[in-house]
Structures are given as C-alpha cells and as structure tokens.
Amino acid sequence: MGAPEHGADRDAFNAIAARFCFRDRLTAERLDAMLRRAGFARTRPVDYRPILRAQQAHAALHDALRLGSSTRFGLVAEKD
C-alpha cells in the first residue's frame, strides 16, 4: 500500500518530468526528425534484432525478458 501521495510531491515530480526531453518516449520517427533538424541529410532504420539477441544470450533470464519487452530501434544518420 505505502504512504499516501502528497500533492506537493506530485507537482514537483511533474515540473521536473516536464523538462525531460524524452518523457513521452523516444521513437524512431521523433529521432529522425531531430537528426534532420540537426543537419543530417540521410537517415535509415537498421535491424536491431541481432544486437538484441546477442544481449539476451549473455543476460540473466530476468534481464533477457526485460530486454525483449522494451521498445528498441536502430537508426543510422549521415551528414554531408
């Protein structure tokens, strides 16, 4: 159950979290737009699955499950 939440704590948390760049989750589309605004002319997605499989192969079961359940992606960007 825990202690009741205080409104002041929630307000402080929300004020801090509002400053986080990726508080609403980073997506490949959002990162692509950010990279293009930063001057990267070409971006392309890459298959992240081989990296994920390698990480899972050497992880404890609970970490392997966590890795598989999170959203991950790869993106390559090139600047002229």
What Rg is obtained from the alpha carbons, in whole angstroms? 18 Å
Question: What does the largest sheet look like?
Answer: 2 strands, antiparallel
Q: What share of the residues does DSSP label as strand, in percent?
A: 15-25%
Strand order of the largest sheet: 1-2
As residue ranges, the low-confidence spans are none
Q: How many individual helices?
A: 4
The SS-based structural class is: alpha+beta
Supply the key terms.
4 helices; 49% helix; two-stranded antiparallel sheet; 80 residues; alpha+beta; flat
TL;DR?
By secondary structure, this protein is α+β, with helices and mostly antiparallel strands.
Describe the structure.
The protein has a domain at 26-79. The protein has 4 helices and 2 strands. The protein has 80 residues and is α+β, with helices and mostly antiparallel strands. 0% of the residues are buried. The protein has a two-stranded antiparallel sheet. It is flat and about 50 Å long.
